[in-house]
Each structure stands twice: as structure tokens, then as C-alpha cells.
Amino acid sequence: MIQLYIISGYLSLLLLLGLFASRFFSGTSKDYMLASHSIGPFLLLMSLFGTTMTAFALVGSTGEAFKQGIGVYGMLASSSGIIHSLCFFVLGVKLWSLGHKYGYRTQIQFFRDRLESDKIGLLLFPVLVGLVIPYLLIGVMASGGVINGVTQGSVVEGKVVNATFEEGTFPDFLEQGEKGFAVDGSKGGVPRPLASLAICAVVLIYVFFGGMRGTAWANAFQTIVFMILGLVAFVVIAKQLGGQDSLLANLREVATHVSYEKVTRVNISKLQFFTYLLIPFSVGMFPHLFQHWLTAKSASSFKLPVVAHPVFIMIVWVPCVLIGIWATSDLIQIPPPVKANPNILLPFMVKRLAGPVLGGFLTAGILAAIMSSLDSQFLCIGTMFSTDIVTHYADKDRFSDRQQVLMTRCFIVAIVALTYCFSLFEPRAVFTLGVWCFSGFASLFPLVFASVYWRRLTKAGAYASVLAAICTWAYLFYDSGFASNREYRLDITLSGETYHMMPVVGMFASSLFALVVVSLITKPPSNETLEKFFPTAKS
Amino acid sequence: MPRSLCVLILVLIVLHQDNWFWTDDRLVFGFMPIGLFYHACISIAAAGVWWWATIKCWPRDLERSSSTEEQSS
């Protein structure tokens, strides 16, 4: 029960932070959506990092390291250190500058202007929202799993013992799974649907009242929390597993029990590893990151995030990957339900190896990582609905500034409700779902890069690129059994040898090919647009 | 983007592929798999490259143009 009190205390603190941030709200839509371009280097670093580090980073990386070994770090963490900062450097600063100059609040506003096409918004809007929703689902599902995992009891001979709640505390549809209370039910913990609902409600409240400022503050606070508590979890788990006197002795002891497969990458194909490098390009097209970029006070505010981001990734991912491979050793018995669902490995380890008080705090740290992404995504979708659809298609001056804020808030409530409903259906592995979602965004990277750096990009080229990306994504997603096939890869056979590639290669290549070919054979943008986005140097 | 920065990024990408420690199970400091240690070093090297880029290749024209915009508005 103590974990539940600590988690509740942490969530209450976040609510207070959101409400406190709302006291600085000036009432304008620009302030609500972009914090009036007031975010300095430190807050920008924390909010960008907190937003990119999701359930995928903490819960997903531990679970995937458990399954695949250390290779997961190279596939997504060190590659992200290179590619994310590259995106911040070559796209973030440039788009911030254009957004500042022409008053953009969303990506779609920029693309409409750059491509001289109003209808590109109607194509991009469902694509971007459709890709953000699985990303949101990752967080909502993982938060429910984490809270349930740390509050549930242990199953001994088919019976649940030391549970937080007795069987029958909640209605059957909440605590009984398909196979029963003690098998895949809530096992005496907070039922997952209820836990996810609580997280959605907390995030909704501080985003609703605090807007972008509340989101940035909450992200900074939560990033600090999950980085510190992640390191504490690492030390505590090492101590419990190793049973030695010093930290180094514990680390050495635990490492000797990990198998060869997990400390090398023998089970990962080299080409597949290389093609994973395309996935972090998704950062260039995340609509919520675009919105965070626009909050920067100045171009210089980007310097700290560009430099510190790779190191921050390392601080979070290395401990998670080590915990994941340690869980494969003979020092701890991982029960079959946890083996089958790697999403709950980290909460399981925390619960098993840390005391209830520390376990509660560590759980709060995991939730912090999850919520620091959810908030930006909810705010972003609300902003897109009100800016790109309602306000854009309404008569000029149809809505006052206050009405725009109200609309954004209403859309945020609607999208939270919709996401929560989706999360109640059959859960997929966090890592698998995340990779598909990131792949979709990565396949749109050629579009945003060309928009900023290639004068010859045309409206038709952009349409062709988006359609090619999304059709390829949809086909491959369908072919993978809607992500149920976790091992789904694109295979090419050359000289009798088969090479495995990530599906993102097909999406990225088709999007890039369509963009270049169609742009070259269609009419270039007008001189006015070119002068606006690629001004010639004046003496 | 300056050519020197492009070269450095390409070097990072080549180093990232790390075929040389693929099947090496040595432990650095007695606990860190060498493949993981190497990639942690790649993260630090990336930070170093980006630090250099913010000093040598920062787009100061964007900085100036936006501050000019602000003053004129």
C-alpha cells in the first residue's frame, strides 16, 4: 500500500505544478500553445529530452535488452544521440527561425505555406494524428502496466499473497482477466484500466490548465525525477542481485552471470542493426517536438539540447539495458508471465528487489518518463485540431483568442478520452508498437528536410512523398499482422544469402524516391515562395 | 552545413556500426560488456561533435535575423 501512497503523492505534486504554471498564463493562445517563445536553454533541454524519452526508453529498453541483449543500446540509444541532435541542429533551429518569423504554431501551417497548398494540411493532419495516437497508446498502456505491476501481490501455488487489494475490491471486469484474477487479472494491484485512467486524468489536468508552460515545467521536473531515480534503481538492483559490499563488486558479480548471447550481438543481423539508424529520424517529423522547438526564446537556446542530448540518453539507457540483461541471469527467477510480457520487467525488478518505499519512488520515476511524453503529445494534438482545422477553415476573426484556447482545451479532453478507450483493447508490446510508430514518422523525414533545404521541392512532390510513405507503412503494418509479428523484417536475398532489414527502409526509400522524382518533373514553387523560404543574400 | 561537420557525422555513423566488437564478450572494468561500453563512448563522442558544431558551425545568421525581426516588431 505504501507504493500507492507515494505514487499518489507524486501525481498530486504534478497537479500542483500544473496549477501553479497556470498562474503565469497570460490568457492568449500563443501563450497557451507556445509559452510565448519564453523557454530558455535548460528548460528546452529538459522538455525536449523528457518528450523523446518515453515508456519506450525505460520500460521498452529494459524489456528488449532482456530479450535481445546489449544490441538494443546501439540500435536506438547511441544512434539517437547522433541523429536526434542532428535533427535539432539542422531542422530545429531553422524551423524555429521560420516559425518565429512567420508566426507558425504547427507543422501543418509551415507546410501549407512552404508548399503553397492548403490541402496538404488535410492530407498531413490525419497522417500525423494517426501516427501520434499509437505513440500515446504506448504511454497510456505502459503506465497502467507499471502501476499494476508494483501494487500486485505474488502468486504462490495459484493464490495471490501480499496484495494491495483483496479480490473483489473492484468490479470483475476490472480485476479479472481472461484467465482469472491470479493468472492475467489484476492480482490484487490497481487494475490496469484504472491506473491508466488516473495517469490520463493527471496529465490532462496539468496540460489543460498549464498549457505549454505547464507542460515544459512538468517535463523538466519529471526528467530530473526519472534520471535520478533511474540511477538509484540501478544501484539498488545491482546491490540486491550481487550481494557484495561495494557497488563495483556487485556490478562485477552480476555481470559474470549473464550469458554470452546477451553481452554480444550474435543474435542481431548486421544489416538490421544498420537500418535501425533510420528510425531516430522520426524526431524530425514529430509534431509535438516541432511545437517544443517553437517555444525556444532564441536560436542559442538550442545549443545546450544539441550537445547534452546524447549524454542524457546514455545516462538513462545504459542502466536500463544493464538491468535488462541482468534479468536473464540465474541470480533472479523471472516468472513466465513477465517473460511473456517484457513491458512489465522493469516494474517487476523494482518491486522484487527494492523495498516498498524505494519501490514507490522508483515507480514514480518510471511514470515521470511516461508522462513527460504524454503531456506534449496531448497538447500538440489539441493545438493542431484548433489551429489547422477549426481556426484555419473558419472565417477570419471568427474566433477570439480566448475561444481558440477553449477549443484547444476541449480537443485535448477529447483526444485523451479517445486514447484511453483505445488502450483498453488488446495490448501490443511497447517496443514493437513504438518501432512502427517511429518508422512512420521517420519515413516523413525526407519531406521536412527537403522543405527546409531543397528549393526544387514541389507541392506534387510533397503529396507523392506523403502518400508513398503512408501506403508503404500501411501495407507493411498489415503484412506484419498489425505488429503482432514482432520479428517482422524486410528480407532481401543476394547470391543465395538473405539479409534482414527494418521495415522503415522500405517506407523511407519509397517516400524519398517519390519526393525527388515527382518534384523534378513538376512545376517548381513560385519565386515569391522561394524568396520567402530561401532568401538570397542582400549586400 | 559545413563539409567538416558532414565528415564528422559520417565518421560517427561508420563507428556506430561497430562490426569489430560484434561477438566480443569481454567486460570493461569487469562488469560492462565491451559492446555496450563502446556505444556509450559513441554517445559521448556524439556530444563532443555537437559541442564542436555549436562553436564552429552555428548558424549565426538565423540568430541575427530573428533578433532583427523582434526589434522591428
Features:
heterodimer; A: 539 residues; mainly alpha; Sodium/glucose cotransporter; two-stranded antiparallel ribbon; 4 strands; 3% strand; B: 73 residues; 3 helices; 70% helix; elongated
Low-pLDDT stretches of chain A? none
Count of helical regions of chain B: 3
Q: What is the largest interface, and how many residues per chain?
A: A-B, 49 and 39 residues
Number of helices of chain A: 23
Provide the helix percentage of chain B. 55-70%
Number of individual domains of chain A: 1
Mean pLDDT of chain B: 85
- Total number of β-strand segments of chain A? 4
Give the fraction of residues assigned to helices of chain A.
55-70%
Round the Cα radius of gyration of chain A to an integer and report it.
23 Å
In short:
The complex is a heterodimer of chains A (539) and B (73). Chain A has 539 residues and is an all-alpha fold. Chain A has helices at residues 2-22, 29-34, 41-52, 55-68, 71-102, 107-114, 120-151, 172-175, 192-242, 247-255, 260-263, 270-275, 287-294, 303-326, 336-340, 345-353, 356-393, 401-423, 430-442, 445-453, 459-479, 504-521, 527-533; strands spanning 154-156, 159-161, 490-494, 497-501.
Give a written overview of the molecule.
The complex is a heterodimer of chains A (539) and B (73). By secondary structure, chain A is mainly alpha-helical. Chain A has a single domain, classed as Sodium/glucose cotransporter. Chain A contains 23 helices and four strands. In chain A, the strands form two sheets. Chain A has a two-stranded antiparallel ribbon. Chain B has a domain of 46 residues. A two-stranded antiparallel sheet of chain B has the order 1-2. In chain B, helix 1 runs antiparallel to helix 2. The two termini of chain B are 30 Å apart. In chain B, a hairpin with a 3-residue loop joins strand 1 and strand 2. Chain B is 70% helix and 5% strand. The interface between A and B is large, with 49 and 39 residues.
